[in-house]
UniProtKB/TrEMBL annotation:
InterPro entries: DinB, DinB/YfiT-like. Keywords: Metal-binding. SUPFAM superfamilies: DinB/YfiT-like putative metalloenzymes (SSF109854). GO terms for molecular function: metal ion binding. A divalent metal cation binds at H45, H129, H133. The lineage of its organism: Bacteria, Pseudomonadati, Pseudomonadota, Betaproteobacteria, Burkholderiales. Belongs to the DinB family. The keyword Metal-binding applies. It holds the Pfam family DinB. This is Damage-inducible protein DinB.
Amino acid sequence: MHTTLILNQLQYKQWADGRTIAAVEQIDAHRFPSELAFARQQLNHMLRVEEVFRARLQGTEEPHTESNSELLPTTAELSERLSESNRWLKIYFGAMPDVALREKMHFSFLDGKRGTMARVEVLFHLINHGTYHRGAIGRALDIAGGLRPADTYTVYIHAAEPQRRNES
């Protein structure tokens, strides 16, 4: 595996998560309460899945038995916990040797079914999982006044490295 690519993907995830949180914070709670609740539910789900996989990566007890909760954290708490998760993922995967990235983990999914994934597959899952749910949040942001930020990888690359926009 190429460490630079992994760290770049994690930087992208952190960037996209941050843009989504910032947009969710702009939702007018009085005019669009269901859209705000939906966005918070999606962020909560993303975070809980990340926290479960973090425990699996560390070989510790999983902190959740379900992928969502009835009581939703505030947007500020979700932002703080998601930022911490992104920081941890960058440190963990940035220090991981190639051989360990390919190492298989055996675990039970939250639905009780058994699963096996390489550590690098967990990384891909978390990046892809977040993209899926940020897209769902995007629909709520559209309804709540067109607040959806562009969060594709190409937008990230051109924001992070503007010189790449006009390279030939």
